[in-house]
Amino acid sequence: MKVLNIHKRTINQPKSKVTELLKTLSTENDRIWPKKEWPEMKFNDGIQVGAKGGHGPIRYSVEKYIPSEIIQFRFLKPNGFNGIHKFEINELTNEKTEIKHTIDMITQGKGTLIWTFAIRSLHNALIEDGFDKLENNFSDNRKSTEWNIWVKFLRKQIAKKRKK
């Protein structure tokens, strides 16, 4: 199954300020990844081309990294996820920057089922939480996107499974 999943957010800040925050991704001082609510993003050697890591059961390697433009990852797991996901930073004006996350992959077999019934909804919530965290670095009005009922149900099931 062809999957093209895109999330965008306009941040009312210059590109340079958004770029500085993106550089903290997967570090001890990560100011983007919502690790209080989601599995932490970790890499064996930090974010650099060739590094392997991921979050939770999702594994990937860094395929392209230009700090002021793009971080592109290639999926390694789960099996049946064949493609990439990436963060891009685009200057809209001197004071507006767009951050964009894209998954572009072909799923096969069990990967199609996992994507359709679990990962897609969880991924959508995770990315919106990350964009909220990024935006909240620049605002006193705390942004918080509410999870849908399916995400709440899945997270409850995952928590029960971990307790066993």
Description of the molecule:
This protein has one domain (about 1-164): START domain (Alpha-D-Glucose-1,6-Bisphosphate, Chain A, domain 4, 2-Layer Sandwich), CATH 3.30.530.20. The chain is about 30% helix and about 35% strand. The protein contains 3 helices and 7 strands. It has a 7-stranded antiparallel sheet. Strand 5 and strand 6 (about 80-95) form a beta hairpin. Helix 2 crosses helix 3 (about 150-164).
Report a brief summary of the structure.
It is built from three helices and seven strands, in the order βαββββββαα.
Helices and strands in order:
Blueprint: E1 2-11, H1 15-22, E2 42-43, E3 52-55, E4 58-66, E5 70-77, E6 81-93, E7 96-107, H2 110-136, H3 149-163
Antiparallel strand pairs: 1-7, 2-3, 3-4, 4-5, 5-6, 6-7
Helix pairs in contact: 2-3
List keywords for this structure.
164 residues; alpha+beta; Alpha-D-Glucose-1,6-Bisphosphate, Chain A, domain 4; 7-stranded antiparallel β-sheet; 7 strands; 30% helix
Strand order of the largest sheet: 1-7-6-5-4-3-2
Low-confidence region ranges: none
Instruction: Report, as a whole number of angstroms, the end-to-end distance.
Output: 33 Å
Give the number of helices: 3
CATH topology: Alpha-D-Glucose-1,6-Bisphosphate, Chain A, domain 4
Question: Largest sheet at a glance?
Answer: 7 strands, antiparallel
What's the overall geometry?
globular
| CATH superfamily heading | START domain
Strand proportion, as a percent range, falls in 35-45%
